Amino acid sequence: MLASNAPLAHAAESGQVVVGTWGGDYGQLLSDLIDKPLLAPKGIEVLQDVANADPRKTKLLAERQSRRGSMDVACLSDSDHYLVEATDAFEAIDPAKISRLDKVFPELRTKTAIPHIYSAQVILYNVNQVKTPPTSWADLWDPKWRGRVGLADILYPNNTIMAALAAGGNMSNYDPGEKKLMELRSLDAKIYPSNEALAAALKSEEVWLTSMWLARGFMWKKAGIPLSHVVPKEGAVSIVFEASVPRNARNKDGGFAYLDAMLDPKAQAAFADKMGYVPTVSDAVLPEDIAKQVSLSEADRARLLKPDYKYHTERMQRTLDFWNKEFKG
Amino acid sequence: MALLVLPACLLVLGLLIGPMILMFRISLNHFSPTQLMIEAFSVDNYVRAAQDPYYQEIILTTLGMALLCTALTLVIAYPAAYWVGRLQSRWKSLVVIATLFPLLVGNVVRSAGWMALFTRDGLINTTLLKAHVISEPLALMYTPKAVVFGIVAVVLPYMILTISAVIESIPRDLEDAAANLGASAMRTFWRVILPLSAPGVAAGSILVFVLCMNTYATAVLLGGPRFKMMAPAIFDQFVRGNNWPMGAALAFMLLAVTMSFTIFGSIAFARRYRVR
């Protein structure tokens, strides 16, 4: 009796994939573009474990010693992924299980994740209020923008990097950014608890300039906020949203099948159209008008800066403490 | 009979005491940005937190907010509790449900409602601007005032229901007797009702104080990024900084402060009313 039930139980388990992901548009698009059209026909049922990145990261770290984890796929940004990967929590990417891996841009490949979408940190400004657009991060410190620069609290690492770049630092040295942040504080920079709260402040013209992902700017422009963007001359920090299979996933094959589906060219193009993130595979073709808004020019791409993950991770406590205790304190 | 308390005891042991022991052990570890936690037996995290002016200020802010909100809640809740306690109507159960109603809405949803009122283009500013009462929108969001409003709204039902239950048990005859003997309504309140309802006031205040000390969602959503209370600061260490040892140490410091004030307050209150 037990023996005859066992394969059934196994089949049921292998048909379900739990994806740890963001909710909102991202989760909805995963569901519409990947879960239903690509995985449902293969008999894979997708369950989304919706949370922000921080709780998901914490869950992965807390569960990493457990034999059975709660996720089969974990979506994280590149910096968060580096931190969790360092604890040996993820399976290595197996090219045999991800047929589309050869289409991924080589510079975005990592050992334990597939890159899903990416964007860059740029300056967004209100076109009605800012007549002479800034050209550099340092321009945000111009006293004429006193009280008009808004920052998202949750992007504190990137706000620190922005200040570091403006002060002559680089991706392996954020220290000069601390003094620069204090100068921005004395220029009455506004801080908002979330990206959405910052968007509301940009909409009501409470603030006119911010540092934000180009993709977010694209979405906010679509939502009717009069914004434009500038790739600062010091450089724009890239962000890659990645997906991995945890070592203790209950359904690893299902997880890898999900990762493969995330690289589908049509799904990738649709993410660009809806959310403004750039595809990570060479065969995803964007309509010209979308490409113009979300992609970076050749010259801008040359100014793309990749995080120094080791330095970034090791400095994280100092970055957070400075942001909380000094800048916001 | 003792077996009757077994399920509750097991639940508390398993789901509260167990994790707390684990958390205490974590609080003695060291933090490493790459290895996250290094096994140790050290009180460094407690010493660092206690000596750090940043956390000293957060503890003081948390304590100040909790005491202020408890006092305000008590002042607002007492008349309502008296009315509910003395109400003799077939609608009484409906009134009690109405008092409980705010608790049916989660903290986050309730705070979202406050946000719709308080933002720069929210209802209050829009109305005042249209009525030409103000020329520039008022800064209502992300202020300690907004947090006080939010917290009091959350904890008010607990105070009302706790006090009204005690007032219900005070015989109305006592008020009549006091009036017969020539006591004014105010004197009756101070000398008869308040002392007799003291257990309800104490229980309600303790409950509300503990809830206020642990405020998270209201402080984050209405206080904004610059306003810090202990629960959001603990969250920051656990989740943003991945520094579990420091987060655990801060959690125990919050617990210690809350317990000390609760115990000290209860003893002081009991002494005060035993004397009378």
Explain what you see:
The complex is a heterodimer of chains A (329) and B (276). By secondary structure, chain A is of the alpha/beta class. Helix content of chain A is 43%, strand content 18%. Chain A folds into two domains: 173 residues, D-Maltodextrin-Binding Protein, domain 2, CATH 3.40.190.10; 148 residues, Periplasmic binding protein-like II (D-Maltodextrin-Binding Protein, domain 2), CATH 3.40.190. Chain A contains 14 helices and eleven strands. In chain A, strands 1, 2, 3, 4, 5, 6, 7, 8, 9, 10 and 11 form an eleven-stranded mixed beta sheet that branches. In chain A, strand 1, helix 2 and strand 2 form a beta-alpha-beta unit. In chain A, helix 6 packs parallel to helix 14. The longest helix of chain A has 16 residues. Chain B has 276 residues and is mainly alpha-helical. Chain B has a domain of 177 residues: MetI-like fold (Orthogonal Bundle), CATH 1.10.3720. Chain B contains 13 helices and two strands, in the order αββαααααααααααα. In chain B, a hairpin with a 3-residue loop joins strand 1 and strand 2. In chain B, helix 3 packs parallel to helix 7, helix 5 packs parallel to helix 11 and helix 12 packs antiparallel against helix 13. The longest helix of chain B is centred in the N-terminal third of the chain and has 34 residues. At the A-B interface, helix 3 and helix 14 of A face helix 12 of B.
